[in-house]
Every structure is written in C-alpha cells, then in structure tokens.
UniProtKB/TrEMBL annotation:
Record domain Glycosyl hydrolase family: where: 2-429
Record protein name field: Conserved exported protein of uncharacterized function
Single Gene Ontology BP annotation: glycoprotein catabolic process
GO MF: carbohydrate binding; peptide-N4-(N-acetyl-beta-glucosaminyl)asparagine amidase activity
Top-level taxonomic group: Bacteria
Cross-referenced Pfam families: Glyco_hydro_92
Native source species: Mycobacterium tuberculosis
GO cellular-component term (any): cytosol
Length: 557
C-alpha cells in the first residue's frame, strides 16, 4: 500500500503550473501572455517517457487538468510554430527521439480530456508529420521528415541523431506509434481521410524488419541493413547503434498498435513465446544486454505481450516480478522516474490494468495487488475492481476468471467504453496458473493491422561477381507479415542482353519465412562491368523490389 500511494503521489507531480497567480507567463515567443481565467498553463513535459502510462492515468483521473495540459502544448505550438519535444519551461529541449508529444496529447484526449482546441491540435500534428514542424531557433519537431516519407523509414543519417547517436530504427518505431495516434485522433474528429493516411504510415516499422536476422534493424539510405546479427552488444556504450537508449532486442517489442503483425513477423505464437521467455529471464539489465530493461520506457508494455499470444498467466507472473522491483525506499524504483513515468506504470500494474495501445483506451489486464480498489471517475461513475485473495502474505497471483458487470469474460482486455461508463470488474484468483482462461486468439487485445505489407525482404549479399559464361546465385530472404498469405513469387528482371535470371515461386514455411536462391547466368558475350538486376518479391497484394549488382569480370588466371 505504501508503494502504491508513493507512486500515485509521484504520478501527480508533473507537468507543472507555469503561470503566476495572476495568470501571466512568458511564452515560447518570449512575450508575456495570460492564460484564460479558470485555466492553467503547464510546462515540463517529459513526453517520450510519460505518454505511455502517465498521460492515460492523468487523463482518466483529471480530464479538466489534462485538457489544460493539451491546450498548453497547442498554445506553445501557436507561439513557436511547432509542438516542442521535451518541453522545459518555455522552450523545446529537443531531447529524446520520436514525436512523442503526439501520443501524449492523444492519450490525454482518449482517456477524458476534451476542453481544448481540437482542430488546432490536429493541425500541428499533421504539419510536423508532413513538413517537419519548424519551430524557433532552428528547432524541428520531426527532423528528416522528407527522407522518411520518401523511403518509408528513418535511415542512418545525421538527421536521425538522438542523444548522441544516430537512431533511425527507434525513430521509425516511435514515429509509427505517433502516426497511429494521429490516425486515431483524426478518426475521432471525423477526418477519415487523414486517419487513413496515418494508419497506413503506422506500419512503416515493417520497412525495417530484416527477415535475415528477425530483428527490426537500422537501415541505410540506400536500403541496406547492417551485416551480421541483429543484436550487437556494446559493453562500453549506452545501447546499440540505431537505437535510442536500448538495443535491437529491447526495441523489437515496441509495436504496441499492431502486436498481431509483429507476432506474425516473428514466426507466430509458438516462436514468440520462446523468444519472450528468453527476453524476460532478466528484468532490468540496462541498455546493452538482450533482456528486458524494466526501468526504461520502451519496455513498459512487454509483460502484457503474453496476453496477445495465448499465455496470459505469464503476463500475470512477469508483471508481479517487475512490481517486486519497486518499494517505498529511497532506491525504490528500477530506474529514473522520468517525471512520473515509472510511478504511473506501477499504479496501473497494481490495479491490474495497463493502457497497452497508445491512442486508444484499450486496457489489458493482470492480477491486481488489492482485494478491492475503486477508481472514482470525474463523471461520478467508477471502475470497481474486486479480487479476493489478491493481498496478504499468501496472496493469489493468477487469474482464474473475470467478470465484467457480472458477465463472464474470457478476454484479456476491457471494453474501451469502461473509462467513460465505469464498471464492475471481479477477478477470481488462484495460486496456480489457469492455462485455459484468456488463451483463445479472440481473447487477445485488438491489433490494428490496416495498411500492412504482406511481405518483407532482404538480400544480405546484394553484390555478386560472375565471370562470363558462368552462373551465380543470390539468396532472397522473405518473411510473411500477414497471416493467411502462403504463397510468394520472386521475379528477377535484367535489362541487359546476356544476363538472365529465372523467376521462382513457392510457399512460406510454417514460421512464414523463406530463403530462396536466385540463379543468375552471364553469357560469354557480356563485357566486364557493373549490371543491376531488379528482384521483385510478391506475396498477397504486396511487392517489394531490391537491386542486385552483378559485377562481370574475366577470371584472373
């Protein structure tokens, strides 16, 4: 109980009132402004950290204050030209990666905030996501946006530098989440055209999925993935190149809006269970090891991923293990609280709920820590959570059943409307795992896969030397990204007389993967030189084309 209320207290410390008692404050433009009577102008938004769990909590409990928080950010954008990234006082620090002010706003909105300029809020989101969002003194909300839109990912170039290293992979993952949030916000405002555009863009993470390694990896502007394995340890550094405060294994799991698509990319439920079991053997390793770093924000949602893959008892066990890292002591948090980010995580986990999908009010479940808890909503309604046996020395750690408003539920998530209407949740608990409840595919929280590609492709060795009169082969690695797509074709095209490659087709293996060998024949008449072959891999309604460079040279005797 002490830990819970300590964390709740810390969840209410930030952001901070910036105006004086008479309503005046210094704006981003350096001019003195006055906030409207009855409202507050807020500052100090640790957005990359707090959008995941703090914003939903504050939006749920204090929607009017949350509205003022959003309006403060909209006003900041009006004064400066763009939303600030990691706003401190009346300036944009530009810290961290992503455009995290977007899901912060949308989470506050989804969970209850309504009293702000909705039209302007969407305008500045779309402006940054299409034109970069030009602020004051050279600040860009989304630096590199032109390259991102042209390539469909953030390449490993200087524009995608974050905290001292180029972090194209993690920027792409964050912007995919950010664009999903824009889509949901636009849809809620009736702007279905904008919603559709950004729903499609929310799947850009797929453009960095490397089927050769099974990782979401950084990629050059020319389209090449790094040689070697997907995870590379940097013992003396702070994470891996291509990622902001983390590594390839830790960022792999950050596709919260399309977990089902990620599961397909990783080979299906069975494969993902094994990989997730391995990843959660250690809980708080820092940025350099291939395990969970519970004290840093990209790993916040990992324990609940088991709810998506038919093993919710492992969510219940893993959440409980991570909760054990907290305590009411000076060192009672597993990392930097980041203006309430870690503390709000604990508040949700202790209640038995977690906001799993930024931009929505989807709450997925775990075993509560209390026999009874009541969340009083500002509407006068409440969410009442009952879990007999959850507390005490011999507390029960596993969910045996769940009823929502007295109706049995086998789903591992709640109706989205519950944050507005309230409801009664009753957990039946047990001392051992129930390996039936919540295991059906229909029990998993929703994923939003619209706009997904059916296949991703890589050619790890795209340059091949072939002497005239000989044949060489290149390997095309492909991964199914949408369930139900079984067949693929590989069509190589050469525009050079004397260089030929035959098309091939087949079916993906049980994990949805294939490594196909493409034979390339060079006639004796072909002179020495460099010749491109365009290799198109098709599956379902999708096709991806990569270039193989054939280097023709006479053999050296």
């Amino acid at each position: 109980m002490d830990t819970f209320y300590t964390c709740l207290y810390r969840s209410l410390l930030h952001p901070n009132t910036f105006n004086d008692v008479d309503g005046r404050y210094i704006g981003f433009d350096g001019v003195i402004h006055s906030v409207a009577s009855g409202h507050t102008h807020y500052a100090n938004f640790s957005d990359w950290d707090t959008y995941r769990s703090l914003a939903p909590l504050q939006g749920l409990l204090f929607p009017q204050r949350a509205s003022d928080m959003i309006q403060s950010l909209v006003t900041d954008a009006e004064q400066s030209g763009a939303y600030p990234r990691w706003a401190l006082a009346n300036s944009a620090t530009g810290m961290m990666s992503g455009d995290s002010v977007v899901p912060l706003i949308v989470n506050l909105y989804a969970f209850g905030a309504r009293d702000f300029d909705l039209k302007s809020a969407l305008h500045y989101m779309v402006n940054a996501a299409t034109q970069g969002g030009v602020g004051l003194d050279g600040f860009l909300e989304r630096p590199g946006i032109a390259a991102y839109l042209r390539l469909g990912y953030g390449p490993q170039t200087a524009e995608f530098r974050a905290n001292g290293r180029i972090a194209g992979a993690s920027v792409t993952l964050e912007w995919s989440v950010d664009d999903f949030a824009i889509s949901r916000f636009a849809d809620s405002l009736g702007d279905t055209a904008t919603a559709a555009v950004f729903q499609n863009r929310s799947q850009y993470w797929q453009n960095l999925f490397n089927p050769t390694t099974g990782y979401i990896s950084p990629r050059s502007a020319a389209g090449f993935f790094p040689d070697g394995p997907g995870f590379v340890a940097y013992p003396s550094g702070f994470g891996q190149d291509g990622y902001d405060e983390g590594n390839a294994e830790q960022y792999l799991w950050w596709v919260p809006h399309n977990v089902a698509g990620l599961v397909t990319a990783l080979g299906g439920r069975t494969a993902v269970v094994k990989r997730l079991d391995r990843f959660t053997k250690k809980l708080n390793v820092g940025p350099n090891e291939p395990y969970l770093w519970a004290g840093n924000e990209p790993g916040f949602g990992v324990p609940w991923l088991y709810n998506y893959i038919g093993q919710p008892w492992k969510t219940q066990r893993t959440v409980d293990r991570v909760r054990g890292l907290f305590g009411p002591t000076p060192g009672g948090a597993p990392g930097n609280d980041d203006l309430g980010a870690l503390s709000s995580w604990y508040v949700w986990a202790a209640l038995g709920l977690y906001p799993s999908t930024p931009g929505t009010t989807i709450l997925t479940v775990n075993t509560p820590l209390f026999d009874r808890a009541v969340i009083a909503l500002p509407t006068g309604k409440s969410i009442q959570i009952t879990a007999p046996g959850a507390s005490g020395r011999n507390r029960l750690k596993y969910i045996d059943g769940l009823t929502i408003d007295r109706q049995p539920s086998n789903q591992t998530f709640l109706p989205e409307s519950i944050v507005r209407t309230g409801g009664d949740l009753t957990f039946s608990l047990a001392g051992t795992p129930n390996k039936v409840w919540g295991t059906a595919a229909s029990a998993a929280p929703p994923s939003f896969g619209a706009g997904s590609s059916a296949v991703t492709v890589n050619i790890a060795r795209p340059i091949i030397g072939i002497v005239p009169g000989a044949t060489g082969t290149v390997t095309v690695d492909a991964q199914r990204m949408i369930d139900g797509v079984d067949d693929y074709t590989v069509t190589p095209t050469s525009y050079v007389v004397g260089i030929a490659a035959e098309p091939l087709s087949g079916q993906f293996d049980d994990d949805g993967a294939v490594s196909a060998s493409v034979a390339i024949t060079v006639a004796r008449s072909v002179p020495s030189g460099y010749y491109p072959i365009y290799v198109t891999t098709s599956a379902g309604d999708s096709a991806r084309t990569l270039i193989v460079l054939v280097v023709v040279a006479e053999a050296v005797e």
